[in-house]
Amino acid sequence: MNAAGTLRRAWAGLSGILVLIALAVAVATLVFVAVGGHPPASQAQQVQQIAAGLHCPICKDLSVADSPAPLAQQMRQEITQRLRAGESADQIRAGFVAAYGDSVLMSPPRRGVAGMVYYLPLLVLAVGVITAFTLLRRWLRAPQPDPPGAGSPELSAAGRRAVAKAVARLREEEPG
Q: In this structure, is the dihedral angle defined by the CA atoms of residues 70, 76, 82 and 85, taken in order, positive or negative?
């Protein structure tokens, strides 16, 4: 039994060390990916990413990447040409915004009236939390009504005698 107990303790210590090593490897991997970033995307992937972020001016709910319209095809070709010319994705998007306006972006910009899409839910959440907190504080601080008989003073001896007489009179008057 002593050898088995020693073996169990050794295994428990070893499993703890293995967990720590696995955790350290996971953290190191996350740091490596965060610092190193993603591998550079191919030109076709970059075109797809940029086109997916732009609305097709002809189609209602399709991105330039998904639209079969001839204009969307021309826009994809223009993205490819601009990438070959060395423009960044932000520069390409800015060019399309200059040509078509903010409505060409799949997600609204974070400024102006369109920026409310990002900030209004946070504002509503904050107001809700503050209101709930205030109501909870009021509810917890509100005086609670005393249960019946809890706050009544003790009867004096004379009061008890008077109650006993009244109860005895009621019993005498009962038909029975």
A: negative
